[in-house]
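Title: Prediction job returns without error message
Component: structure pipeline
Severity: low
Priority: P3
Assignee: unassigned

Description:
Job completed but the reporter wants confirmation the result is attached to the right record. Sequence as submitted:
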Amino acid sequence: MYAVSGFEAHGDLGEIVLEHKLTQRVLRSAEQVDELLSQVCERVELMALPEVAYETVLEVLSGRETRFGNDDDMWRLSKWAVLGYWAAIQVKEPTLDFFGDVLGDYRLALHARFDDGMLKEFSSGHGEWVLTDLGVAKLGPAGELIPLVDPEFRVPRILKENLVVATAEAALVAAGLR
């Protein structure tokens, strides 16, 4: 488990939990137990120091680091973003410029993740979807078109916005604690 610590009110903000099934087959094989422990140690090393943890978060967001799993759940990725921000402020004093730099890093990481041209939907599935010259868009309540993909970075808009909100919440909590 990797979690932001130091405040109770938002104890689950930024928490990443990894579970391993320990079957009888795994436990009976010394090789499989060693392999599992090796994987855990590798991940612990990637989160051991704040500088390394921040780089790990960028790699996870970009889709290049898969040792923590390779899912595209926007809430999980947002929690990674919160963990990254907290790791970053352990190294450098947070300022508005610093906050902007972190968000810039996140946007570039997401851009790398989605630059393969594959569209991944981060939506509840509610609403009507249409095809426009900007790609897939959701039809809003007033008939307006809301592009699913941010035109500048070609990443799902809802994911980008969610990461910004989650990181901003982490920044506000950090500002209150300092």
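Comment from assignee: result matches the submitted record. The radius of gyration is 19 Å.
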